[in-house]
């Protein structure tokens, strides 16, 4: 966590690290308050849903080394700023972020402060004060009665994109040697990244609301060379924005979410830029890009609809490989990710080009 106001940044950082025997693994749900926020987002009673979620996921840990020693590469690492979906938070995409980090990326998974996260917080109090007075929580907020959803969500998507831009600016400050204190007092020192990130190779990525955020961020910040949008929720973006989207976007859709109108908006972008691609993963649902698809059993799946018919690990492979092929192409990486270029054309098992007609869950 950087900064003591709402304008600060809160993110989980995924990065290549050296193996460490007996390394601690971080909790997937960092605090119980997130369980309450997920209950609110699902429109369920906190009284029973939050304890249920805590019992189901409270002990789950991400299979990574917490505050592991950073592993310098032979060349500087490309950077990805990741934007979560509506009702999610910074750890919900650990599987895809971990996969990208293992392939040589530094990934900053933001936790947005626009009331779209299930819950989040900041620490306005100075160090040394009691924890009870040092945190201010920002709850999930539904569209206020009487307010049009587009205007509410459009304001949020602009704030989210601004936070993505500030994320990039933060890593620029680190590269310049500026001291960036972590208010949470973790053992990881951000200064180790000073000479390790290639700021000429930066992308923005996100799921659902985060997918729309990623598209908008490329307009606000030209240094984002491309965007990867996982099942993007295109509704919050104003129509006047589309002619301004000049950077290539990879839309990786699920089979059960998109509407014809949403896909038409994606095609409007692809018609202006031949490098913008749209593919759909068959047998997937809107929550398939999240970690929930790996963790939920039948009962939780009934509440959150987190699984499709496709094996979650196969879905992760398709998603990450398509993203890697796209990132290599547009960040000019010297890797072998182009071996998965066919996925960008919708060629492969369980993937098709464009978006087949289906009944949307919207």
TrEMBL record:
The active site is at 208 (nucleophile), 231 (charge relay system), 286 (charge relay system). SUPFAM superfamilies: alpha/beta-Hydrolases. It is an enzyme of class 3 (hydrolase). This is Platelet-activating factor acetylhydrolase. It comes from Apteryx owenii. GO terms for molecular function: 1-alkyl-2-acetylglycerophosphocholine esterase activity. Its EC number is 3.1.1.47. It comes from the Eukaryota. InterPro entries: AB_hydrolase_fold, PAF_acetylhydro_eukaryote. Keywords: Hydrolase, Lipid degradation, Lipid metabolism. Transmembrane segments: none annotated. It catalyses: a 1-O-alkyl-2-acetyl-sn-glycero-3-phosphocholine + H2O = a 1-O-alkyl-sn-glycero-3-phosphocholine + acetate + H(+). GO terms for biological process: lipid catabolic process.
């Amino acid at each position: 966590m950087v900064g003591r106001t709402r304008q600060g940044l809160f993110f989980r950082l995924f990065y290549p690290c050296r193996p460490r025997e007996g390394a601690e693994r971080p909790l997937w749900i960092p605090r119980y308050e997130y369980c309450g926020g997920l209950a609110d987002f699902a429109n369920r009673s906190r009284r029973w849903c939050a304890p249920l979620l805590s019992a189901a996921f409270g002990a789950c840990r991400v299979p990574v080394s917490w505050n592991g020693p950073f592993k310098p590469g032979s060349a500087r690492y490309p950077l990805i700023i990741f934007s979560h979906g509506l009702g999610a938070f910074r750890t919900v995409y650990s599987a895809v972020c971990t996969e990208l980090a293992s392939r040589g990326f530094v990934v900053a998974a933001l936790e947005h402060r626009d009331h779209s996260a299930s819950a989040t917080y900041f620490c306005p109090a100075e160090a040394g004060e009691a924890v009870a007075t040092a945190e201010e929580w920002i709850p999930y907020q539904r569209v206020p009665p009487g307010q049009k959803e587009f205007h509410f969500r459009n304001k949020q998507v602009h704030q989210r994109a601004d936070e993505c831009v500030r994320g990039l600016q933060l890593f620029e400050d680190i590269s310049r040697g500026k001291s960036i204190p972590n208010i949470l007092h973790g053992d990881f020192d951000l200064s180790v990244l000073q000479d390790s990130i290639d700021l000429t190779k930066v992308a923005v990525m996100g799921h659902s609301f985060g997918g729309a955020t990623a598209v908008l961020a490329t307009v606000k910040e030209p240094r984002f060379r491309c965007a990867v949008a996982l099942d993007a929720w295109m509704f919050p973006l104003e129509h006047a924005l589309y002619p301004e989207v000049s950077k290539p976007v990879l839309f990786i859709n699920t089979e059960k979410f998109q509407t014809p109108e949403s896909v038409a908006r994606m095609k409007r972008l692809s018609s202006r830029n031949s490098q913008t691609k749209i593919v759909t993963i068959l047998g997937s649902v809107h929550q398939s890009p999240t970690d929930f698809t790996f963790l939920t059993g039948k009962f939780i799946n009934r509440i959150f609809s987190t699984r499709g018919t496709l094996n979650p690990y196969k879905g992760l492979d398709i998603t990450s490989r398509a993203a890697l092929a796209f990132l290599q192409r547009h960040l000019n990486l010297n890797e072998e990710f182009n071996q998965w270029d066919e996925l960008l054309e919708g060629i492969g098992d369980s993937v098709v080009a464009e978006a087949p007609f289906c009944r949307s869950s919207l």
